[in-house]
Write the structure tokens for this entry.
Amino acid sequence: MDYIPAKHLLHRNKSTEWFGTDHTMNLYRGCCHGCLYCDSRSSCYQNPDFDRVTAKADALRILRDDLARKAKPAFITMGSMSDPYNPFERELQLTRHALELIDAYQCGVAVATKSGLIARDIDLYQSIQEHSPVICKLTVTTTDDVLAAKLEPHAPPPSQRLEALEQLSRAGVFAGVLLMPVLPFVEDFRENVLSVVDCAARAGAKFVYAAFGVTMRDGQRDYFLSGLDRAFPEQGLGERYRKRYGTRYYCPSPQTRELWELFSRRCLELGVLYEMRHIISAATRSYKDRQLSFFD
């Protein structure tokens, strides 16, 4: 593992609309999952060696100092640019020790991952949840492990993520699914969407948050489209995307309206939250009397 320097770990968010968090933290840089669609590969993030994972040097001391300077406890996003539960985390345990600090400083945390390793830290999520909000988000865009292996070639299979979701839910941790991105012409069909919602509900998910489309921009677009052609050589998906979307940033599924109606109806039937405002409210309402910074 190579280490890169960092001055700070906590960075204030411009908005709290994304799951209510007011700070973002990445202990690692880069990702080895190889997901074809990953926006973090984009040129604007200035990480040309994105597939190689590095860690922030002296990260835990820096995080401790950042937390100590906060006048009010923070609500921290982890996993926005790199998966906090990458394979190296099993040995390094930077994420686990960061959660210990977050707990000690009475902060909240929202974590996004594609790894079942998140279940290792159930004890810490339970402890944090006693005083602050916790939101565990597992990305599942298909329940088909074979299809997922083509789109996310080095990530743990969705079946493993759903098992971790069930463990978190049984332990009383607030957890759910990110059904995003739903790739046009690949995953945007009713059976796939309903399967994700149904499996998430059976695993005890409190929410499923969906986006029926994908983003493409410089540095990531060519990687994504050429990856689609390699994964599905007979379907001409790269050219199909180019003709329909050109250089657009957000590329919605042609089936978005129908899928949204289908998706929202099934979530309502199963008692699963799917709107951001309701997810944030459910995750944070028990803590509003503390008047933390993320409720100001």
Q: What stands out?
A: Confidence is low (pLDDT under 50) at residues 291-296. Residues 12 and 23 are 4 Å apart (CA to CA). The domain at 2-295 is CATH 3.20.20.70 (TIM Barrel).
